[in-house]
């Protein structure tokens, strides 16, 4: 009974922590040809679940290898930090997501060329699946670390990962369709990804005990992250309704 309750809590945890991952998958899959996007999402999440279970097994057996320092940098009073494999993976993932979000936001600014660029920049399905799998592994460290704080039973954590993966496959299509039908929410989605990138970079810097100009890098808490996301969603809803009200008033006039 204890394991069942723990499994329920882990599935709930996977759902909460998987929001940003699901959003990334929905946006990233759009880079593939339209007739292959559903397959890309399914294969990307499915392969990521298998690798996430493998990563869980490795972390349970050899977590020290991810935490052992690899190198130390000290550039006067400007930069100082001790990096391990965990911090490097999280930092790289944060930089990649930040770059992806900024690039897509820039494309939206150059609106007159957006559709043409989308046609030219369609990537091969295998390439998109690869990026989805890799970024899923970056997000895995957070969810697996939280899971290991609740239990050390492998089958319980593995089952929660599989259930979480099935839920993501089921929801990914709905999220992608929603963004496709409501293109205005893509901007909000990209800014959420921007915040995700900043969160991962701050977490990676904290793991590396990074100090910049005498100030220690502290990680963005989940509470802060969801508060910022809530503000973004609320402001988008208010702006949307205000624009509709102005449009209706203009039409009446």
Description of the molecule:
The protein is α+β, with helices and mostly antiparallel strands and 253 residues long. It has one domain (2-220). 78% of the residues lie in helices and 7% in strands. The protein is built from 9 helices and 4 strands, in the order H-H-H-E-E-H-H-H-H-H-E-E-H. A hairpin with a 3-residue loop joins strand 1 and strand 2. Helix 1 (2-17) packs across helix 6 (125-150) and helix 2 packs across helix 8. The model has no long low-confidence stretch (mean pLDDT 79).
Can you lay out the helices and strands and say which pair or pack?
Layout (H helix, E strand, L loop, with lengths): L1 H16 L1 H10 L8 H31 L1 E7 L3 E6 H25 L4 H7 L4 H26 L3 H28 L3 H23 L3 E2 L2 E2 L5 H31 L1
Antiparallel strand pairs: 1-2, 2-3, 3-4
Helix pairs in contact: 1-6, 1-7, 2-6, 2-7, 2-8, 3-6, 3-7, 4-6, 4-8, 8-9
What would a concise description of this structure say?
With 253 residues, the chain is α+β, with helices and mostly antiparallel strands. It has one domain (2-220). It is built from nine helices and four strands.
What spatial form do the alpha-carbon principal axes imply?
globular
* Intertermini distance: 65 Å
- Strand element count: 4
The H-and-E topology, N to C, reads as HHHEEHHHHHEEH
- Helical content class: over 70%
User: Structural class, please?
Assistant: alpha+beta
Number of self-contained structural domains: 1
Strand content: 5-15%
Low-confidence stretches: none
Radius of gyration: 20 Å
Oligomer: single chain
Biggest sheet features: 4 strands, antiparallel
Strand order, sheet with most strands: 1-2-3-4
| Count of DSSP H/I helices | 9
Mean pLDDT: 79
């Amino acid at each position: 009974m204890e394991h069942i309750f723990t499994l329920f809590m882990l599935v709930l945890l996977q759902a909460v922590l998987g929001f940003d991952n699901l959003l990334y998958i929905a946006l990233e899959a759009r880079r593939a040809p339209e007739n292959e996007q559903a397959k890309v999402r399914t294969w990307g999440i499915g392969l990521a679940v298998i690798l996430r279970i493998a990563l869980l097994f490795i972390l349970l057996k050899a977590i020290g290898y991810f935490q052992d320092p690899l190198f130390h940098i000290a550039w006067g009073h400007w930069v100082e930090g001790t990096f391990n494999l965990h911090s490097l993976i999280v930092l790289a993932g944060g930089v990649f997501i930040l770059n992806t979000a900024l690039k897509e936001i820039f494309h939206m600014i150059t609106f007159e060329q957006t559709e043409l660029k989308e046609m030219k920049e369609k990537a091969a399905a295998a390439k998109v699946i690869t990026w989805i799998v890799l970024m899923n592994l970056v997000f895995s460290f957070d969810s697996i670390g939280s899971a290991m704080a609740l239990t050390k039973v492998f089958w319980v954590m593995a089952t929660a990962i599989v259930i979480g993966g099935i839920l993501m496959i089921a929801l990914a299509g709905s999220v992608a369709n929603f963004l496709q039908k409501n293109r205005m929410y893509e901007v909000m989605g990209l800014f959420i990804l921007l915040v995700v990138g900043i969160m991962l970079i701050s977490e990676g810097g904290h793991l590396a005990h990074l100090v910049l100009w005498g100030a220690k890098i502290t990680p963005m808490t989940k509470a802060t992250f969801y508060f910022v996301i809530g503000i973004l969603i609320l402001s988008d809803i208010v702006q949307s309704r205000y624009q509709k009200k102005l449009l209706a008033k203009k039409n009446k006039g």
